[in-house]
Amino acid sequence: MAVKVKAKKYLLTGNEIIVQAALDAGAEMFCGYPITPTTEILTGWAEKAAKDKNLLFLQTEDETSAGFTVIGGVLAGKKAWTATAGPGNILMQDPMSMAEAMRLPTVCYIGQRGGPSTGTVIYSQQEVTLTRFGGNGEGMRIVYSPSTLQELYDLTIKAFEAAWKYRFPTFVLGDGYLGKTLGDVDFHKKPKNYASYPFVQNGEINNLRNTFSIEEELYDNLKDHFKDFTEMSKDVSECEEFMLKDAQTVVFAHGVVGSATKMAVRELREEGYRVGLFRPITLSPFPSKETIRAVKRAKRIVIAESSYGQFGRIVREVLYGVTDIPVHRLYRPAVGIMPEDIVEKVKNISK
Amino acid sequence: MDKPTRIIFSGEGGQGVQTIAEIMARAGHLSGHRSTYLPNYGVEQRGGVSIAFVQLCGCPEEATSCSCNIGFPKFKKADVMVVLCERAIERTRRYVKKEALYIYDNSLISNALLAGISCPKIALPATEIAKKKLTPRVFNVVLLGAVIAYTGVIDKKYIIKAIEEQFAEKIKKNPEIKHLNRRAFDIGYEVMSDIIRNAKKERVSV
Amino acid sequence: MKTSNFPKCYKKETKPNKFCPGCGHSLTLKTLGQVIDGFEISKKMVFGIDIGCSLLAWDFFDIDTVQTHHGRVVPVIKGIKMASPKTVAIAYMGDGGGYAIGLQSLLHSAKRNDPITVILVNNTLYGMTGGQKAPTTMKGEVTSSTPGGVFTDDEPFMGPELINHITKGKAYTARASVGNLFDLKRKIQEAIMYQINGKGFAFVEVLSMCPLNWKTDVKNTIEFLDKMEKVFPVGVIGKS
């Protein structure tokens, strides 16, 4: 049993942790629009900016404008970022698709809430597809899925590192449970910081565009991006493999449901169940090799998510043709999945 | 593997449910326990039923490591239910388990409404006590005192420090607030301690 | 040695430009180029462009240029100005981008008095998609989406007047026409100086021609522009 060191340094809410992580990663500019459950990120940054004149802040007229103003800041060389949720994530896809086309580093925190439409305001895992593939493109984005408050901090910092290193729009896909939870967190002493750089006013003449006159020209451009994306994937994709070694049942879960699953696995192990957790930390690029490795010796898998199969589709696509063991679904769109739910499910299918 | 102590606080928005939940998590943190607190409410800014989920690890204070199963901030069943209004009874019924303790303010909730709650219950007229001895506003802290006395996980001194942190701004403006909340906490703590002592004497489990 | 009458900031390898014969964009951009030359700001500025025919200007100048999305050039240019206050930030867009899909951002930028310069080209319709009704389409005007003409009470959109109203005269707001390039140049100069002098938001609407979608010959094109100048009064609407 993994034993954790007690008493972490700070007691903060998830949304406060995200602001701190952004500051520690060198963020200089935030533009956003209030929306539950991420508003405290906007107000938290506004408070910091009121005290530090080097921090830029703008509350825009909508999320679309927030994203495009962030892009303006990025073009001018600032580490600019935003945070949004649900219906705001939809509007945010307009600027993020431009960032994807023009290979601009952007960081966007998403606090998933229930959908479709206005839905509920705190929790779901229903923005997986939108965040990975939103926009009229191919989904060349980096998407981190944190499962704990500590990971909110660590992965937000990683998002800034990855964005400016690889120049793909980067997302931290959280939810309102994580954002609103008050709990313990440690801060790094010194995160790796990749310097930002201007795309205009940088000593050259830059004519930047996202439009092409002929199809073949766009195709060639996209091929280059795919090449970069594939190369980057090896370095960026991440996962957690928990008690998989002798596991007959492998539970796939991501984000905060990954946390619940880990608790369930601990309980089930105490009762003698050979069960483990596979948790992708990046939903894009997806840790496909590790996914395949995780089921090699398994007799069955369970996919647990607070959505009707958005995450499951990724897992099943990766495993297509690799294995024919049964796939059990614990799909609970828009509601939390508690450790007890997973324990019950695993017990039921292990009979 | 130790299981954490799980508490649900619920009441009307504005009754101070979230405040006492946050104080409890803060005190847990100050005492070195791992703790989480998750607020839960609807779309309304005011007036809905407000629920708070708190988890505290059960390790002794001097422990340097912890293997309590804490991670996910929400849970299905609570060890302690604190219910401050009648509307919250139905909203939180699903979180009640047989072994839980149900603490409610019987100056606000009529006992008859709790017939369907099958776990042990303690009626604590926190509002009346606060009204008589202090000011009605601090009735939530009276209940917090009772919860702390019952759970026994956190030492009193950390709660007092957490109260001071929680109300730091208000105390700066009005130092009396510190005193009021401390008194409220002590009263709740004593009332619950008495109840537990009497129950032990009579060999009745609460 | 003077080799041509063209602005120095032109990107020569992209000329002749991508605009249709008779289009008012090239006249507007040439005038803007002359102002940029005159102020010697080509190295200190970022030129942002919207979607619609304006996007064809993405490589028009030897100047830092960013082509954005429909209606989104204002927030991008605002972001650049925010992050780099010394940059002269100019947004270039059409009437659809500014008055329809991007109006929200345009008005809020004006209301905040962002120190940017916006040049909006008004040709009363959506040129790039084949001449549909725009917010600026005049009464009776036939477009491909109003084949019977606009006969409702749908008044054409008065952009500079609206901005002047909501900014209480704080912003620079003006309307010029490609029918009078001398006047257009002066207004673009004033609008850019407004930003350089730190006075805030500056907005010039340019009445322009689209013979392709108007389906007009030279004579009728000039008549159409004359009519526009009657409907949309040319002049400085507000400044402080």
Explained architecture:
The complex is a heterotrimer of chains A (351), B (206) and C (240). Chain A is globular and about 65 Å long. Chain A is built from twelve helices and 16 strands. In chain A, β3, α2 and β4 form a beta-alpha-beta unit. The N terminus of chain A is likely disordered. Chain B has a single domain, classed as Pyruvate-ferredoxin Oxidoreductase, domain 3 (3-Layer(aba) Sandwich), CATH 3.40.920. Chain B is globular and about 45 Å long. The two termini of chain B are 25 Å apart. With 240 residues, chain C is an alpha/beta fold. Chain C is 35% helix and 17% strand. The mean pLDDT of chain C is 95. The chains are: A alpha/beta (351), B alpha/beta (206), C alpha/beta (240). Chains in contact: A-B, A-C. The interface between A and B is medium-sized, with 36 and 32 residues. β9 of chain A pairs antiparallel with β2 of chain B.
Point out poorly predicted stretches of chain C. Answer: none
CATH superfamily of the largest domain in chain A: Thiamin diphosphate (ThDP)-binding fold, Pyr/PP domains
Q: What is the average of the pLDDT values of chain C?
A: 95
> Oligomer, anyone?
heterotrimer
- The CATH architecture name of the largest domain in chain A reads 3-Layer(aba) Sandwich
Order of helices and strands of chain C: HEEHEHHEEEHEHEHHE
Strand content of chain C is 15-25%
The percent range for strand residues of chain A is: 15-25%
Average pLDDT of chain A works out at 95
CATH superfamily (homologous) name of chain C:
Thiamin diphosphate (ThDP)-binding fold, Pyr/PP domains
Q: Specify which chain pair forms the largest interface.
A: A-B, 36 and 32 residues
CATH topology (level 3) name of the largest domain in chain A: Rossmann fold
- Estimate percent helicity of chain C: 25-40%
CATH level-1 class of chain C: Alpha Beta
How can the largest sheet of chain A be summarized? 7 strands, mixed
Outline of chain A: globular
* Total DSSP E strands of chain A: 16
The total strand number of chain C stands at 9
Instruction: Please report the number of helical segments of chain A.
Output: 12
Low-confidence stretches of chain A: 1-7
